[in-house]
Amino acid sequence: MQVKTLLKLSIAAAIATIAMKSAAWWVTDSVGLLSDAMESFVNLASALFAIAMVTIAQRPADEDHPFGHTKAEYFSSGFEGLLIVGAAAGIIWAAVHRFTEPQPLQSLGWGIALAVVSSALNWLLAWRMMAASREHRSIVLEADARHLYTDVWTSAGVVVGLVLVHLTGWLWLDPVLAIGVALNILREGAHLAWRSVDGLMDSAVEPEVRAQIDRALAQFAHHTIRFDHLVTRRAGQRRFVDLHMHMPASWTLGRAAALRTSVEQALMSEVPGLRASIQLLPSDVEAHFNDVEDTP
């Protein structure tokens, strides 16, 4: 299933869960369920922004962006993290207000049932999106899936808390529960924001991708051919590798270029979508452009 299709399903699920959780809050007057509903509004805004960023990320390279637009996905993850932080602040404010003016809860059975159904819907979608995020290497899908999983766990906590309120009559449990929800999603928001910043700083490829690159190069390395100065980076779904390939100085340019083509094809076969830049050097020549120069 394509990334955009899953994000559209996320929008539909967010609208459905907003309706159910808002109805649950309306019939119970529970600030815990209100906090749960507010998180679903964040899900909706995040999915809408994510579709916009994915659309930009899929644009082909152009004169102003020769490496493509794939980093746009990281803005979606950062935006979602900031929204979560804002939602957490709103939840804490509402919970503190309820502490000062406790209110009895109504129709808990209906409220709990609606919360459980909405959580089941979110769990199914989160499971599918997390699997697709690994398949497409999409931080957008991963961010949305993680947030949905957080939503499921917070909803479960709210439901358990409401049951305890019903059994004990302790009204103070409701705002305590809301604050717990806020702190949990605040932690998730900070994680997503960091992932966004980390991605924008040109992180190296994942360890498993680096292992695939090393495996492809090992097919060509022997006493006359060696590779060094290998660096990698990732930008959204794209992966890049730069390296030097050393070979005998007596080789013709045509022979060296033919071998480089074979190496590039092996790399792209091992890591689909990989962009490789290989600099050819004689065996007795070393490049030192990354060395730190002494300053007087």
Number of helices: 8
- Strand residue content: 5-15%
Q: Which structural class do the helices and strands define?
A: mainly alpha
Major β-sheet annotation: 3 strands, mixed
Taken from the alpha-carbon principal axes, the silhouette is elongated
Q: TL;DR of this structure?
A:
With 296 residues, the chain is mainly alpha-helical.
Topology:
Elements: H1 3-28, H2 31-57, H3 72-100, H4 108-136, H5 139-168, H6 173-200, H7 207-218, E1 226-235, E2 238-247, H8 253-270, E3 274-282
Parallel strand pairs: 2-3
Antiparallel strand pairs: 1-2
Helix pairs in contact: 1-2, 1-4, 2-3, 2-5, 2-6, 3-5, 3-6, 4-5, 5-6, 7-8
Descriptive overview:
- The structure is a single chain.
- By secondary structure, the chain is mainly α.
- The protein has two domains: 198 residues, Alpha-lytic protease prodomain-like, CATH 1.20.1510.10; 76 residues, Alpha-Beta Plaits.
- It is 67% helix and 10% strand.
- The protein contains eight helices and three strands.
- A three-stranded mixed β-sheet has the order 1-2-3, covered by helices on one side.
- A hairpin with a 2-residue loop joins strand 1 and strand 2.
- Helix 2 packs parallel to helix 6, helix 3 runs antiparallel to helix 6 and helix 5 runs antiparallel to helix 6.
- The longest helix has 30 residues.
Defining key terms:
single chain, 296 residues, mainly alpha, Alpha-lytic protease prodomain-like, Alpha-Beta Plaits, 2 domains, 3-stranded mixed sheet, 8 helices, 3 strands, 67% helix, elongated, disordered C terminus
